[in-house]
Design brief:
Elements: H1 9-12, H2 15-29, H3 37-50, H4 59-71, E1 76-80, H5 86-98, E2 103-108, H6 111-124, E3 127-132, E4 143-149, H7 157-170, E5 171-184, H8 200-213, H9 218-232, H10 236-240, H11 245-255, E6 258-265, E7 279-287
Parallel strand pairs: 1-2, 1-4, 2-3, 4-5
Antiparallel strand pairs: 5-7, 6-7
Length: about 290
């Protein structure tokens, strides 16, 4: 008898429907003061059209760590921000594979991803509380896991310290912070980017063709390309600065979190080591005392 294959995030996330909802409703749900309407309107649609519906990077890392935590009794989870419901799909499928029913809290300052997460939670029958709040101020109590994905890069250094401190105070003794994040090399100068990343007209043209191939109308495909072009032209780290491993370790140390793992994966298309400052995708585990 062949054992059932482990569940993946793709198995439980109705991305086409959630992408359409965000595309249609983000202009009304996103607060104008936050300037996130283009980002939240397009993110799920870009995952669907450009990435074929793939889950966020690092989902296998999260599944492995969730399995270990669940075996030790972890049940209470805080998801700290999310561009859409992709991270919730990772968490929910990971716990289902572990045979455990978690109690999940999802928090983001924007109502658009909160809406998407509430809808996914209701569809899956999850024990989920999803609320709109600022993670610089929000604190939960007694969380076994805090999970974040590419989140700290949206904040400047002092704000990052506040977020990490709130994560630490939200964790139960012995609880773990699980992160997937880009980390920048130390040193002065601009971070390396592939030349194609700054050729926004070419990227828009490719996206428009991909969107047509995915079934969007010509008008929708053109609008998606325009919205994505504005998002690509405004990178968060241009405003906040790249997050380095040294800075991250400093925030953990100040918050009383012990680093268990920071494993970096270089970009496949990056130049030879030492040629330029790079960003690397890192899988991170830090733990509260106790």
């Amino acid at each position: 008898m062949v054992a059932d294959a482990p569940m993946t995030p793709v198995d439980i996330e109705p991305l086409p429907r959630l992408a359409r909802l965000a595309w249609d409703r983000a202009p009304a749900l996103c607060a104008s003061r936050d300037g996130c309407a283009d980002y939240h309107r397009s993110w799920s649609m870009l995952r669907l059209v450009r990435a074929g519906g793939k889950p966020p990077a690092g989902w296998r890392f999260f599944h492995a760590e969730i399995a270990r935590a669940a075996a030790r009794g972890a049940r209470r989870v805080l998801i700290s921000g999310g561009a859409d419901a992709g991270l919730l799909a990772i968490v929910a499928s990971g716990f289902r594979n572990a045979g455990v029913v978690p109690r999940i809290t999802f928090v983001d300052r924007c109502a658009t991803p909160v809406m998407q997460n509430r809808l996914l939670g209701a569809e899956l029958g999850l024990d989920l509380r999803a609320e709109t709040a600022d993670l610089r101020e929000f604190r939960a109590d007694g969380m076994d896991l805090v999970i974040a994905h590419s989140f700290l890069v949206f904040f400047e250094t002092a704000e990052r310290a506040r977020v990490v401190a709130n994560w630490a105070e939200s964790l139960a003794p012995g609880g773990a912070l699980l992160m997937s994040s880009a980390l920048a090399d130390e040193g002065p100068g601009a971070l390396w980017r592939p030349a194609s990343a700054d050729d926004i007209p070419a990227r828009k043209a490719r996206l428009q063709a991909q969107a047509r191939g995915a079934g969007l109308t010509p008008a929708e495909a053109a609008e998606l390309a325009d919205v994505a072009g504005r998002v690509w032209a405004t990178r968060p780290s241009d405003r906040t600065g790249g997050l380095t491993e040294a800075e991250l370790r400093g925030h953990f140390r100040a918050a009383g979190l012990a680093v268990e793992r920071i494993a970096c994966k270089p970009r496949a298309d990056a130049p030879a080591l030492g040629a330029a400052r790079q960003r690397r995708r890192a899988e991170i585990v830090a733990r509260a005392p106790g």
